[in-house]
Specification:
The protein has helices spanning 2-7, 16-22, 63-69, 88-96, 118-127, 139-145, and strands spanning 11-15, 46-50, 77-81, 100-104, 106-108, 114-116, 133-137, 157-161, 178-179, 185-186, 192-199, 202-208. The protein is of the alpha/beta class. A five-stranded parallel sheet has the order 4-3-2-1-7. The chain has a three-stranded antiparallel sheet with strand order 8-12-11, with no helix packed on it. The mean pLDDT is 92.
């Protein structure tokens, strides 16, 4: 299901934490898409990595670039901040595979976090010809997008519920709680047009914010 969804989007987006931790491929690996039974890269999404501080140390051996050389995926666009400059060797390696760094202005939150404005980021991707984006994670990326200021940018939400507890300290995906006029906690968001689909032991929840 995940790979089918990837094939239906122009781009797939993750944060730098996921890129560092997982060494992901970020391609679609089902029969019929580019590199898996058909010519060209039809159906292969463009990987987008949000890396404001340019800390992802990708190399020739990184899975995402190996897939590019094998004709099974596209090179990533890396969203960096205007005040973080990648090294010349990083820039050359990425561009040689067909990717590039895209610098954008960064906001600094009250807690000192460096964040890129989602409206600006998505508009930038649209200017690159990417009309649809599948945002996979990680938790910090999804939580920031679910904030009230940006939730209107989301067309749909797909959640897989598996019979597994990650345990305390695991990835938590949930926007901050909201308060009403009296200071009482109210739900941060609620989905509408909800549908449920069972797949083996898992259940997939689909809805709109």
């Amino acid at each position: 299901m995940t790979h089918y969804l990837r094939s239906r989007h122009d781009a797939i987006l993750i944060g730098v934490g996921t890129a560092v931790a997982d060494n992901p491929g970020l391609n679609c690996r089902i029969e019929g898409v580019g590199g898996y039974g058909s010519e060209g890269l039809t159906g292969q999404p463009r990987p987008i990595v949000v890396d404001p501080s340019v800390r992802w140390e990708f190399t020739e051996e990184s899975k995402i670039l190996e897939l590019v050389r094998e004709g099974r995926g596209q090179a990533p666009f890396i969203i960096s901040s205007n005040d973080s400059t990648p090294s010349a060797s990083k820039k050359e390696l990425l561009e040689r595979h067909g990717g590039k760094f895209i610098p954008l202005d960064v906001m600094v939150t009250e807690s000192g976090e460096r964040r890129i404005d989602w409206t600006v980021l998505l508009e930038c991707l649209k200017q690159e010809g990417l009309q649809s984006v599948m945002i996979e994670g990680g938790g910090a990326i999804i939580n920031s997008l679910l904030e009230p200021a940006y939730a209107h940018l989301i067309d749909s939400v797909i959640v897989t519920i598996a019979p597994t507890w990650l345990g305390q300290g695991g990835v938590v995906v949930s926007p901050r709680r909201r308060l009403d006029g009296n200071g009482n906690a109210v739900p941060a968001a609620r989905l509408r047009d909800v549908k449920w689909y069972p797949f083996g032991e898992d259940v997939v929840l689909c809805g709109r914010v």
